[in-house]
């Protein structure tokens, strides 16, 4: 049985690496590409920023594919994330940063960095966090649009 979303995602990557995982505007990303990007950022967060279990990382991102990449990267470190709106006043962002004891905020500038490519091969850096097991029988793409959800 798979007990967390990271394991479920890794299982899906193994089953359907070349299928579309994320669509945004005219961009698409396969499960393999999404996994590689998330792994590269996760390794950076662990090794350079000492992010791990017990940490909460605020996400302050524009609405695009980087949201999904950042969420997965943070979860792969064993940490949690909290999403912040770009519409929040600076005082609210600072309050959340203080309350979470955040070591950093992942924003658009952070995501624009060139991270060293890291490919997970099933027997390496992330093994201490999870082992891949079968879960999803088919791929479920994540589709982001420019419109906020309607209530």
From TrEMBL:
It comes from the Bacteria. Pfam families: AMP-binding (PF00501). Residues 9-106 form the AMP-dependent synthetase/ligase domain. Signal peptide: none annotated. It comes from Enterococcus viikkiensis. This is AMP-binding protein.
